[in-house]
Write a structure and sequence with these properties.
The structure is a single chain. With 246 residues, the chain is mostly helical. Helices cover 52% and strands 8% of the residues. It contains ten helices and six strands, in the order H-H-E-H-H-E-H-H-H-E-E-H-E-E-H-H. It has a two-stranded antiparallel ribbon with strand order 1-2. Strands 3-4 form a two-stranded antiparallel ribbon.
């Protein structure tokens, strides 16, 4: 009973934390770009997994997701998983935790970087997609960047080398400017390739938030078909029972 209660309290505290964060972010005015996840797009999910492993997992764990389960779902061979996607001494059956010391992380960032297993469900995938795209240079911030979706964000723009240096481009005197411009030649990717990569990364986080969603949908079709089939026989049986009653 103590374990169950503790788990419920932990879940509730996480929910309150993410809800309060979302409420503060919602106060920022930004026209969101639409995001439609595609759990059947395996190449997209694979690329998102690669991007997460290379750019996010160093700080943000996915402690409710296992390497092996992820590889199996995304059709990644186990030998490739161990060679290219696990950068610590962890085993393929382990949970995807970060090697960063939480005490040192809190000293560096002011707060321990949160686990992101449920971020797409707590925040919404559309929010995540726009958040990842809207970092911009702000020299007044500790890490030199700010974010249009999460104002006064407390983390660096880890994807800057892919996107390039993004700045606000506004006329003087304009308040609440939303015109973001990437300096040419500062990123490894062009705009279209970067947008596709952010889509893939967000798509992966959407999958991680509920890995069994596609299996449930597939099973649901068979369950509904079975119930429809059973309904026919139930109707015929009912008709047979009542045929002599007037």
């Amino acid at each position: 009973m103590i374990r169950v209660t503790g788990g419920l309290v932990t879940w509730f505290l996480c929910f309150v934390f993410y809800s309060s964060q979302a409420s503060s972010a919602s106060a920022v005015s930004w026209e969101m770009e639409k995001f439609e996840p595609d759990m059947e797009n395996i190449p997209s999910l694979q690329n998102g997994y690669k991007l997460y492993s290379n750019y996010c997992l160093g700080c943000h764990s996915l402690k409710y997701q296992r390497y092996e389960r992820t590889a199996d779902d995304l059709l990644i061979p186990h030998d490739l998983l161990e060679e290219q996607l696990i950068f610590t001494n962890q085993k393929k059956g382990d949970l995807m935790t970060t090697a960063m010391d939480p005490v040192k992380a809190k000293a560096w960032f002011g707060v321990t970087p949160p686990d992101l297993t449920m971020v797409a469900r707590a925040r919404d995938s559309e929010w995540v997609y726009n958040y990842l795209k809207t970092f911009y240079v702000d020299e007044t911030r500790p890490f030199g960047v700010n974010n249009k979706v999460f104002e006064n964000v407390g983390m660096p723009n880890v994807l800057m080398e892919l996107q390039g240096v993004q700045r606000l481009d506004c006329d003087s005197g304009v308040t609440n400017c939303d015109n973001l411009v990437v300096e040419l030649g500062t990123g490894l990717y062009g705009e279209d390739e970067f947008d596709r990569s952010i889509y893939d990364l967000t798509n992966f986080l959407h999958y991680v938030g509920d890995p069994s969603q596609e299996q449930r949908r597939s099973l649901g079709v068979w369950v509904l078909a079975f119930l429809a089939f059973l309904g026919i026989f139930t109707y015929l049986l009912n008709h047979e029972y009542w045929k002599d009653i007037h």
